[in-house]
Amino acid sequence: MPSMTFDEAAQKMRETHGVKESDMEELYALYKQATVGDVNKERPGIAHPVERRKWDAWEKKKGMSSERAKEEYVKKAESLL
User: Fold this and answer.
1) Which CATH number is 13's domain given?
2) Looking at the domain assignment, is residue 73 inside a domain?
3) Domain presence at residue 23
4) What is the pLDDT averaged over residues 58-73?
5) What pTM was computed for the model?
6) Which of 8, 70, 1 is nearest to 37 (CA)?
7) Can you give the residue range of the structural domain that contains 19?
8) Mind listing the pLDDT tens digit for each residue in 44-54?
């Protein structure tokens, strides 16, 4: 069982610097899936590469339950702290 709650993990990650971009994209995707659900907006255009990568990461979580996304987020955050 994770030692942090989802909210605690999210707060700690907001305060953490120096995390690789790929890890941040994964955390973003898990956070959005946990709090919003499946991606609900259009894919950003190529003029917005960062937003596009974040969208792509979120899209890969399609169908994952909110509870599972929260669990995965906490596991990922704990592995980075």
Assistant:
1) 1.20.80.10
2) yes
3) yes
4) 98
5) 0.91
6) 70
7) 6-80
8) 999 999 999 99
Q: Tokens standing for 59?
A: 């899209």
Residues 30, 61 contacting (CB under 8 angstroms): yes
Q: Note whether 79 and 4 are within 8 A (CB).
A: no
Number of compact structural domains in the chain: 1
Residue 36: inside a domain, yes or no? yes
Q: What is the DSSP letter of 67?
A: H
State the Cα–Cα distance between residues 2 and 50, nearest whole angstrom: 30
Question: Considering the domain boundaries, does residue 1 fall inside one?
Answer: no
Per-residue tokens: 51 = 């937003």
Taken in order 61, 41, 44, 71, the sign of the CA dihedral is negative
In the predicted model, what is the mean pLDDT of residues 55-61?
A: 98
Q: What is the DSSP letter of 61?
A: T
Token reading at 39:
């991606």
Distances 22 to 3, 18, 60, 69 between C-alpha atoms, Å:
24, 12, 14, 17
- Are the beta carbons of 72 and 29 closer than 8 angstroms? no
